[in-house]
Amino acid sequence: MDPILVLEQSLNGLQFGLMLFLLAAGLTLVFGIMDMINLAHGSLYMIGAYLAAAVAMATGSFWLAVAVAMGGTAVIGVVLEVTLLRRLYQRDHLHQVLATFALILMSNEAVRMIWGPTALALDPPPSLAGPVELLPGLYYPAFRLVIIGVGLLVAVLLYFLVSHTRLGMLVRAGASNREMARAMGVRVSLVFTIVFAIGAALCALAGAMLGPLFAVQVGMGESILILAFVVIVIGGIGSIRGALVGALLVGMVDTVGRTFLPMWLRAVLPPTVASNLGPALASVLIYVLMAGVLFWRPQGLFPARG
Amino acid sequence: MRRTLAALAMATLGLTAHAADQIRIGFMSTLSGPSAALGLDIRDAFNLVVKNNGGKLGGLPAEVIVVDDQMNPDTGKQLTARLLKKDRVDVVTGIVFSNVMLAIAPSILENQTFLVSANAGPGAFSGEGCNPYFYVASWQNDGYHEAAGQFANTKNFKSVVLLAPNYPAGKDALTGFKRLYKGQVIEEIYTKLGQLDFAAELAQVRAAKPQAVYIFQPGGMGINFIKQWVAAGLDKQMTLIGPGFSADEDVIKAVGEPMVGMFNTSHWAHDLGNAENRKFVADFQKAYGRMPTVYAAQGYDTALLIDAAVRDAKGKIEDKATFGKALASTNFKSVRGDFKLNVNHAPIQNYYLRQIWKDANGRITNKLVGTVLTNHADAYASACKMKGW
């Protein structure tokens, strides 16, 4: 097999996986630590992307747009947490699902009212719009390299935050035994609010970075939310490390499924059968992966508890 | 006996048919999401005709009920039920995507309501599945792609990679391209409909090393594909050919400079010299402040077709045979120049070659280069056993 193809596809898988990680990290903390199913996580991603597109259109600066989107979405996240979600922590999962599903519908309509039904364009900075020649014959889009860099940076920062800071310690304490932590004088509710704000900011970062590759549109959060749930189920709910590994696995499997699977099928099957079967199989491959993980490791690859 | 009764009933119906007092158009299109630009162009151009006619089509006051299918066949089905049962429309039009068309057409045709396509012309309704109530004002799905295949021959491209979304029109597109193309097809890549990130496919194309790549990626998919194509540096390694959809004003606006030089095929060009077209391009720009696309041209022609048929049927749109005959006769001046409908009600028309360039004012747009296929009929029509009205 062509080594350049393998290398390029690995970079593609890595890039997609790291962006999924940004979404999954916030989702897994909220789900694992607060035991809260937040379907509106995808809406925060959408809001982040819209804020970024709006600021980029108004100012022309992509990086300013990313910063404003992260800050703005974090504030929206905090407001949501304090006014609504906080009341749902003690309820059962069905109530949480219903309430946060309502949030999806409301935020989709709100975005439609503010920015209209057509998709917005968010362009990467002009200096990053072209390719970089990594190896002779291997051109790779500069912007995707930046995405990989940002994803890796966030992974390292999150690891440092959770394992080596006082806040991280409080997060872990709140997660393993909420009552005990409270008895020791930890303001668990404040910790949760901060965690939620960080999760929202990461959503916005993912939205702003992926905006130029996808389209900034109403409903963009739902399709990617499903993938983020697959990631945290594979990785183990509540584990940042699990989210990273799960995201990279899903990113790689998705890329392999889309390119190498049809190639292999064509080698063994008649072309018409292969061209029908390939895309169908590729789109279910990550769910097959999830089913496999659930079968052998029902708690996920890196369970946060026990 | 039964036959006589039926004939009698027909006769009385014919006798009592009188001019309707208005025409109700169910305009279902994709008006949201990344491919909304297509539906918006068709809608705006359609409305332009109605507006220029003082709110009438063929002399009847026209009520255009606009609904958004969101590119979703299920949404389309629900809306169709509403248009047929609640709004009781006389004509349904506006549909952009073939998957929506295939989902909604059967119930419309069973209801004996006229369906005039302003865009999708899927193969399913061009051959054995042709229907007296189904008309295509735009093109049969294969047409643009057959022209592109023919063009690739004239450019002497020996090897190509083909790429299209995995849905009926995507399959039609690649079938169409291969019908006339004589070189080698190295690979056919099917992507997910609505897919916006093409990194994996672009890597595959790079590895396959073809001379040219032909894509059919309508709407937002095409915009993203071409942006990513340029970002990956592939524009310096091979030639990209597309149907007119992937190289029109909406894509040019989003991608800009790197589009210059791209060849594409279409049934219409903004610089076609006929008088009707000059008026349309000027009117559209004046009304909406943007250049029209092929989609706009189709929306405009669709409205003109309905307008002419209502006029020729003297407003008797409830008399299906009269109105159907009038639709099939295409008695109007189209912005694409002369064309007519085949037995399967799909157009027989010219397909042109366009190339994107920078005009004298520095504006990036298409220019007409030449004719690729003359009076081209689709390959399905011979299988259509349509009885006349």
Residue-averaged pLDDT of chain B, rounded?
92
**Known CATH architecture of the largest domain in chain B:** 3-Layer(aba) Sandwich
Beta-strand residue percentage of chain A = under 5%
> How many beta-strand runs of chain B?
14
The count of domains of chain A is: 1
Give the end-to-end Cα distance of chain A, rounded to a whole number of Å. 43 Å
- Largest beta-sheet characterization of chain B: 8 strands, mixed
Our count of helices of chain A gives 11
Main structural class of chain B: alpha/beta
CATH superfamily descriptor of the largest domain in chain B:
Response regulator
Principal-axis shape of chain A = globular
Which strand-content bin applies to the residues of chain B?
15-25%
Overall pLDDT score of chain A: 89
Can you characterise this structure?
The complex is a heterodimer of chains A (306) and B (389). Helix content of chain A is 75%, strand content 3%. Chain A is an all-alpha fold and 306 residues long. Chain A has one domain: ABC transporter involved in vitamin B12 uptake, BtuC. The mean pLDDT of chain A is 89. With 389 residues, chain B is α/β, with parallel strands linked by helices. Chain B has two domains: 216 residues, Rossmann fold, CATH 3.40.50; 150 residues, 3-Layer(aba) Sandwich (Rossmann fold), CATH 3.40.50. Helix content of chain B is 40%, strand content 21%. Chain B has twelve helices and 14 strands. In chain B, the strands form two sheets. In chain B, strands 7, 8, 9, 10, 11, 12, 13 and 14 form an eight-stranded mixed beta sheet that branches. Chain B is globular, with a radius of gyration of 21 Å. About 2% of the residues of chain B have low confidence. Chains A and B meet through α1, β2, α5, α10 and α11 of A and α2, β8, α7 and α8 of B.
Concise summary:
The complex is a heterodimer of chains A (306) and B (389). By secondary structure, chain A is an all-alpha fold.
